[in-house]
Amino acid sequence: MIPKPKSEAWLLCAVGNRYQHCERLENESGNDNALNPLKAQLEEALGEPASRELLVDKVNNGEIDVHRIDMPSLNKFKERLDEVLRAV
Prior knowledge:
This protein is mainly alpha-helical. The chain has one domain (7-87). Helix content is 49%, strand content 0%. It has helices spanning 7-15, 38-46, 52-60, 72-87. Helix 1 (7-15) runs parallel beside helix 2. The two termini are 17 Å apart.
């Protein structure tokens, strides 16, 4: 599964938008060379580089709650993941 536009949009929904009005992020460019790339937006919202370790820590300590992120692309991903896991 490839996120649309990219997984930074899902994380930005939690970190930058506080889980509100995240549908606008679905239409952001996934291009890192765009004028305001999602990766840069996420790092700005975090106040530091978005390393894997930092993001894992934020998920583990509850600062990012994937269950509160309501975005069509993530919802579709979670539904499909559930389907696949049930079939295994």
